[in-house]
Amino acid sequence: MTKHYALRPCILFLSAALSVFVQAQTGESLPIVDQRTDPSSPRQAPPGFMVKVDAEHGECMDEATRQQVWQEISTNIARLREEDPNAVPVERGTHPLFIWPTRAAASFTGYGFEIINNFVDHNPAFNNNLTDWNCGTRTYDWTSGNHMGTDIVLWPYAWRRMQEGVMEVVAAAAGTIVDKRDGFNDLQCVNAGNPNWNGIVLSHADGSTTWYLHFKSGSLTSKVVGETVAEGEYLGSAGSSGSSTIPHLHFEVHDGVGNYIDPFAGACNTFNGTDTWWAAQQAYKVPRINHISTHYASHEFYQCPVPETTYEQSNFMSGDSLIMRIYYRDLDNNALTNLLIRDDQGNVEASWNFNSPWLFGSGTWAWWYWLIDNSWATGSYTFEATFNGATYVRPFTIGMPIGLEENATPLFSVAPNPANETLRLSDLPSGNIRLSLLDATGRAVLNERSSSTVHDIDISGLSVGAYQVKAEVDGRASTQRVMIAR
């Protein structure tokens, strides 16, 4: 079974609902059947699967909370102007032109880190009556309100990358801080209108304001209400504070008299029409690969708000599963991806094509797998994907020393390894521990519970081969590989 995400940026709840074209369902990943192997490829296309992240709706910021924010802004501006009549100047005239309000931290070396899950809803009716600026439905509402901002979500590994501070929020234009909130819980997993968000509101020269919500606690700039920031200046780091179930930025814009603005100009923008507020407006769809990776298990451990256990690995041995995964942004129907595996001499080991069956997905992932056997030569390889004119590369090795990058400090010990009849787990953490033994495809072949620091697993009935032992307790998970040999 695949993991089930609960991604709900502001009012959005995203589940890893699995769809066959437009019919949503839950359960196993959808097998990929429409792929073609290059006739000259030494190997056939591997089995593949897809998961599409679909949206459900819930409530975000109610009108009472929004009016409270306006009152705070008004009070703060009045106080600042009482202290200094020139504080928070308003020149009126031309509105600002925004730069993009997020950037990757300097330490981030990946391909991409964000997706846009939702735009502003321009249909004033409620209950799933939706129209975004481009006349599509990439937005949401609820029984008594409409979404009035742009949700920029960390993708993939949102909780892990939140802790790493990957998505930095910056000032879309120069302005004065007129509201600032910090210190609230940033690990929210419930979307029920919680008003306790961390964030900043800026006032700009024409009197317009930009709202930046859901920051990670303690990540905000040291500047205080009344101080100015330059365009592009750091404001904070994306989190999941307030009404939120996934780390993200809710970016909201109002003009000088408080009217809603959608910075994206388009035919169905009912606020400011074809007048863009972006210095360089992004396209409606930005098709790209955010992350390409290799793993030793087909599943992931996800439990909001625990950082994801991804089981990524770059070193593989005979008997291992080689799981190749791609996380897409804005994957459209029939979008073509060319995939290949190349050895260290540049020779193509395998080459195949994949056409997406989905109508559209702002966040989608696909994976393929092989069981490594002795037909694979020892050495270095690359898993490569060419999509929308760009090529993405993930190096890996076969036959090199095993390295479990995410489990350098495991929760338990395993002996013997290789094992024969009995596998002993020791140094287990206290608590009600869930233990699983997974075969090379990631399927659980044994599931047991333990409350002891030492636990024996009978493996006498299992076939020889490579397995993973997984322990889960109190939102933590650790996996170690074992061999059964006789």
What does this structure look like?
With 486 residues, this protein is mainly beta. Helices cover 6% and strands 41% of the residues. Among the domains are: 56-261, Glucose Permease (Domain IIA), CATH 2.70.70.10; 409-486, Macroglobulin (MG2) domain (Immunoglobulin-like, Sandwich), CATH 2.60.40. The protein has helices at residues 63-83, 158-163; strands at 6-7, 12-15, 18-20, 23-25, 30-32, 35-37, 48-52, 54-57, 102-104, 114-118, 141-142, 145-146, 150-154, 167-170, 175-181, 199-203, 209-213, 228-229, 234-237, 248-254, 260-261, 288-295, 301-303, 306-309, 315-316, 321-332, 336-343, 348-355, 360-371, 379-387, 390-398, 413-415, 422-426, 433-438, 444-450, 455-458, 465-473, 476-484. Strands 10, 13, 15, 16, 17, 18, 20 and 21 form an eight-stranded antiparallel sheet that branches. A hairpin with a 6-residue loop joins strand 32 and strand 33 (422-426). The two termini are 30 Å apart.
Q: Which CATH top level class of one domain fits?
A: Mainly Beta
* The CATH superfamily title of one domain: Glucose Permease (Domain IIA)
Estimate what percentage of residues fall within beta strands: 35-45%
Structural class: mainly beta
| Portion in helices | under 10%
Main sheet: strands, sense, barrel: 8 strands, antiparallel
- Mean pLDDT equals 86
Terminal Cα separation, in Å?
A: 30 Å
Tally of DSSP β-strands: 38
Q: What order do the helices and strands come in, and which of them pair?
A:
Blueprint: E1 6-7, E2 12-15, E3 18-20, E4 23-25, E5 30-32, E6 35-37, E7 48-52, E8 54-57, H1 63-83, E9 102-104, E10 114-118, E11 141-142, E12 145-146, E13 150-154, H2 158-163, E14 167-170, E15 175-181, E16 199-203, E17 209-213, E18 228-229, E19 234-237, E20 248-254, E21 260-261, E22 288-295, E23 301-303, E24 306-309, E25 315-316, E26 321-332, E27 336-343, E28 348-355, E29 360-371, E30 379-387, E31 390-398, E32 413-415, E33 422-426, E34 433-438, E35 444-450, E36 455-458, E37 465-473, E38 476-484
